[in-house]
Design brief:
Elements: H1 12-21, H2 30-37, E1 41-42, E2 47-48, H3 51-63, H4 76-94, E3 98-100, H5 102-107, H6 111-115, E4 123-127, E5 131-132, E6 148-149, H7 151-162, E7 166-170, H8 173-176, E8 187-192, H9 199-204, E9 208-209, H10 210-216, E10 223-226, H11 231-243, E11 256-260, H12 282-296, H13 305-321, E12 329-334, H14 338-341, H15 347-352, E13 358-363, H16 370-380, E14 384-387, H17 388-393, E15 409-412, E16 419-421, E17 428-431, H18 433-438, H19 443-457, H20 465-474, E18 478-481, H21 484-492, E19 497-504, E20 510-516, H22 518-542, H23 558-563, E21 576-584, H24 589-595, E22 599-602, E23 609-617, H25 634-647, E24 656-659, H26 667-673, E25 680-685, E26 696-698, H27 701-709, H28 715-723
Parallel strand pairs: 4-7, 7-12, 8-9, 8-11, 10-11, 12-13, 13-14, 17-18, 24-25
Antiparallel strand pairs: 1-2, 3-17, 5-6, 14-25, 15-16, 19-20, 21-23, 21-26, 22-23
């Protein structure tokens, strides 16, 4: 990797000037959420970052990805232009008029970014079929770069999940047909030495004594692998075991795989770089035996979509145990694969590991059997639907059929807003238009900066060959916006769907066609073209491919909470609500929150956890045209997603449509109606906060005012007073996520 010849740093004088003139637009939950989610530990100062320091780190980490900074031909004019751009980006993000993805807020500008460029991207996609490892940072010793192996997609998934990213994976019939027959059973042995602090727990989990085994066995007769205490070691060990089941990747023709876990650090040990504490080897041991059992049970047959999903879920379960709060997975199966669609009905396996993925099915525009899917959604909220045909042949629907415009697309990220080719990541940045305009930004300028930020991320240093090839070819970016409902209502005085007209579709089926406000259509269209133009200009400067697609609507989540706007395209949960956030009971923020009057009580579900209640008022809650997730119709939500897919997003639009029980009969007809427009959709029944300590509980205006009147003082100031701005390392929100659906982890 070439090093920088010139590095851009924002000076303290500029930072102080911005702090004096720009006020961050914190939402009610904003500063607290930031402090517990994105503020990194500064060892030399013995505290976590303040917001100005976080933004400085993030912007510097991004601007220095511009490849021209490694080129001796860089001119002074080009350098100063980048410095000016970094300053504008700093002001935009510091004011919370826009932010990069949560992953960038956490990783950008750190040493970890330099070592693992993959970590800047939230989510990935991999096709489950035999693939070559290629020139990647992981290559098991028994393989060469160009040898295909069943283990490769599982290794990719395991690696990315352990880096904190989410992974979508495809087990559609075309992939399953490429799976070879499982040739042999494997006798799996896991060894551990008495010298390991994890010895007792590991023996109980099924490992055996290393010294006793080596007395009676010659490792020359087995496939032996001693795991180094690294992420890569876990991945390669799993690959050894998987590939031993197949003759093509077991040239020694051995039946025994022996994995030595002695060097794995014990439970509770600190993890450098990414942060957190180790799980110890026990979850890994359990995973080895569980995946081996799946493969042993398939001897003489090809692996099925259910087998492969189980293997992916078992990996995800292990990563969760390894101190990543959410290991986000989306499994994409065939729309007529009944075994895949019903696999979560096995309650024992659901609770054991099948909870680890959201499951969706791949459809095309000819598919019309939506009723069984709708019935399943009403029963358990799954599956979602993903139309790969639309993604391959359309950008924005308004731009018409463009055959093969994105023909390598095979799946999607776990939240569904970016359709992806094999090995490709999503690459996100979002603008909050309602805040940007309040702070005096021209929206075109804000979106231009967003496009350039994401473009630079494509020049990160990527670990996997399959990813590098896809990224260099596509340069895909995902410029998003959040607070869409807030901005539309603020700016235009009404929602985008102004009504419905009775008509018939192309097949003569009666439908209610949405009517859109033409002013809103034009504004979104103009902003889309500004993003495309910004990408074209910057691509010319960098002498690289223009981005295959540019815009999206991500579901948002924690990032939207920072600014207090509605998540992505979603309607606010309620006009007024109690938002509950959970903290570790040792968190030094809790005394400051209590001193400011917030209600705090022990969490009824989890030990050593406290539940804090925040009264929240939605933007425009008192506007007569305001709608919330609790009262907006399912038809309007489908129509709003279709509007954004038509006039704004050339990638896809993440949307979790909420529905009331009486609307369940509308699900299948609406899916069919929008089959030629919507690229991905998921649905969930609306929950009005019925269960105890629900994350969100709707309240009325009177209760909100009563609860708000109990809040005294500023949490940030009170925290500084009580702690001399000192903070504890490795304390974080218990329920953090980078998206509204909870699918994508931050770390």
């Amino acid at each position: 990797m070439m090093s920088l010849l010139r590095k851009i740093k924002l000076d303290d004088e500029f930072i102080d000037e911005v702090k004096a003139t720009v006020k961050p637009h914190w939402g009610e939950l904003g500063w607290v959420t930031y402090k517990r989610t994105y503020a990194r530990w500064i060892p030399e100062l013995g505290r976590t970052e303040n917001w100005s320091e976080t933004v400085k780190r993030v912007i510097e980490g991004n601007i220095n990805l511009d490849p021209r900074l490694k080129d001796e031909s860089l001119t002074e004019e080009q350098y100063q232009s980048l410095v000016s751009e970094a300053k504008e980006l700093y002001k935009l993000v510091y004011g919370l008029a826009a932010t990069p993805s949560g992953r960038n807020l956490w990783i950008s500008g750190t040493e970890y970014q330099d070592r693992n460029g993959d970590a800047l991207n939230n989510c990935w996609f991999i096709a489950i079929r035999p693939q070559k490892y290629g020139d990647s940072h992981i290559l098991p010793s028994y393989l060469n770069e160009d040898q295909v192996a069943v283990s490769m997609p599982f290794s990719f998934m395991f690696d990315q999940l352990m880096k904190g990213g989410g992974v979508g994976f495809s087990v559609v019939p075309d992939n399953m047909k490429q799976m070879p027959v499982v040739d042999k059973k494997v006798n799996l042995t896991v060894l551990i030495s008495k010298s390991s602090a994890s010895y007792k727990d590991s023996i109980e989990a099924g490992a055996i004594d290393r010294e006793d085994y080596l007395k009676d066995h010659d490792i020359a007769d087995v496939r032996f692998y001693k795991l180094p205490d690294t992420r890569e070691g876990w991945v390669v060990a799993n690959a050894n075991m998987i590939d031993a089941h197949f003759s093509a990747t077991n040239s020694e023709d051995v039946n025994d795989v022996v994995l030595d876990i002695t060097d794995i650090r014990p439970k509770g040990a600190k993890i450098k770089g990414f942060g957190g504490t180790a799980s110890g080897p026990v979850p890994l041991i359990e995973m080895f035996f569980d995946i081996n059992e799946v493969l042993d049970n398939a001897v003489g047959k090809q692996l099925t979509s259910v087998d492969c999903t189980d293997m992916g879920n078992l990996i995800g379960k292990t990563v969760v145990a390894g101190n990543v709060r959410r290991s986000a997975e989306l499994a994409l199966g065939g729309a007529t694969d009944d075994d895949f669609i019903t696999m979560k009905q096995d309650q024992e396996k659901l609770y054991h590991h099948r909870w680890a993925s959201n499951n969706s099915v791949a459809v095309d525009s000819k598919f019309n059997k939506y009723q069984p899917i709708a019935d399943s959604i009403v029963h358990n909220g799954e599956p979602g639907i993903v139309n790969l045909e639309l993604s391959r042949n359309y950008g924005r629907i308004a731009d018409g059929y463009q055959p093969g415009i994105d023909d390598a697309v095979e799946g999607t990220n776990p939240c569904g807003e970016i359709s992806l080719s094999n090995g490709e990541p999503c690459n996100l940045f979002e603008v909050f238009p309602v805040i940007a305009e309040k702070q005096g930004w021209e929206l075109e300028e804000a979106f231009d900066l967003a496009a350039r930020y994401t473009k630079r991320v494509t020049f990160s240093s990527y670990d996997w060959e399959v990813s590098r090839k896809a990224i260099q070819k596509n340069r895909r970016i995902g410029v998003s916006m959040s607070g869409i409902q807030d901005w539309i209502l603020n700016t235009f005085g009404n929602r985008v769907v102004t009504g419905f007209e009775e008509t018939k579709d192309q097949d003569g089926v009666a439908i209610k066609k949405p009517v859109y406000d033409k002013r809103i259509v034009k504004r979104f269209d103009d902003l889309y073209h500004s993003v495309v133009k910004a990408d074209e200009d910057y691509s010319h400067e960098l002498n690289c491919n223009t981005s295959i697609k540019h815009t999206t609507v991500k579901p948002s989540g924690t990032v939207a909470k920072l600014a207090g706007v509605s998540e992505g395209m979603h309607f606010h949960y309620a006009g007024y609500l109690i938002q509950r956030i959970r903290f570790q009971d040792s968190d030094p923020l809790l005394p400051a929150l209590k001193a400011c009057g917030y209600k705090i009580e022990p969490d009824v579900y989890t030990k050593h956890t406290m539940c804090v209640e925040f009264p929240v008022k939605a933007v425009n809650a008192d506007n007569p045209n305001f709608a919330s997730a609790g009262n907006v119709s399912i038809a309007e939500q489908f129509a709003t997603q279709a509007f954004l897919q038509t006039y704004w997003s050339d990638n896809a639009v993440s949307c979790t449509v909420t529905f009331q029980p009486e609307e369940s009969d509308e699900i299948a007809p609406l899916m069919y109606q929008y089959r030629n427009i919507t690229k991905s959709t998921s649905l969930l029944p609306y929950s009005g906060g019925e269960f105890k300590q629900a994350p969100k509980e709707p309240i009325n205006k009177k209760v909100y005012k009563e609860r708000e009147s109990m809040i005294i003082g500023n949490v940030a100031k009170k925290f500084a007073e009580m702690n001399d701005n000192h903070d504890k390392k490795d304390i974080e929100l218990v329920d953090q996520s980078d998206c509204e659906s909870g699918a994508c982890p931050i770390r």
